[in-house]
Amino acid sequence: MGNVSRTAIITGAASPQGIGMATAERYAKEGWAVVILDLDGAKASEVAQEIGAAHNVPAFGFSVDVADENSVTAAQQAVKAEVSAGKLPAVGAVANIAGITSPVAFLDTTRELWDKIIAVNATGTYLVTKAFLPEMLENGWGRIVNMSSVSAQRGGGVFGKVPYSAAKAAVLGFTKALARELGDSGVTVNAVTPGAVDTNIRVGSTPETEAAIARDIPIGRTATTEEVASVITFLSSESASYLTGTTLDINGGSHMH
Questions:
Q1: What is the pTM of this model?
Q2: Which domains does the chain have, with CATH numbers?
Q3: Catalytic pick from 27, 126, 164, 242?
């Protein structure tokens, strides 16, 4: 494994143009081994192989439904087996990025949709963190980075309305409470809150809505996935050792507080 000393777990990283894939790429570029967990296991393995070969780091992809505890446990056991076999270094970071949006009005939100949005965005963050946290605590070092959203701070938006905002607000509360609980364990817990990002999940986007969004951003454009990924990997670095319970906004100035 050469100089690679830690593994990063990234959920929802198999989609092209997604923040997850950009984050996996960034971790690998910075010398981490990477494990991609995604609902599409075949694509996760394919992307992991490409990233591993491009950056000469160990990389694996596994199928997982982050909202299903049995599925998450199976993925954690699969990673543990690779670590035990010497194919991966110990897990040092978890980036909880998997998520889905809810671009429908509140009164059109069914209970089924509500439950699904909460399950993937909030419960998934809880389940994946709980699965991989013990190893990091045992090693006395770890970084957990959770994906929230500007929607959690200002309430809704073009692409994520009430259920999404509620789920992402739950992620912020989870992040702060867990950061406080872990204290001086050596494991930090932080969150990122992107605004508009040029990803593949901009459901309902049109040139007109894109132009309107850009006009509302002081920097004058949406973020790239790479810009978000760079903040996530910074929070996973030694340089961020004194940051925990922190929320870093990545919105080009569209929401200031």
A1: 0.93
A2: 7-249 (3.40.50.720)
A3: 164
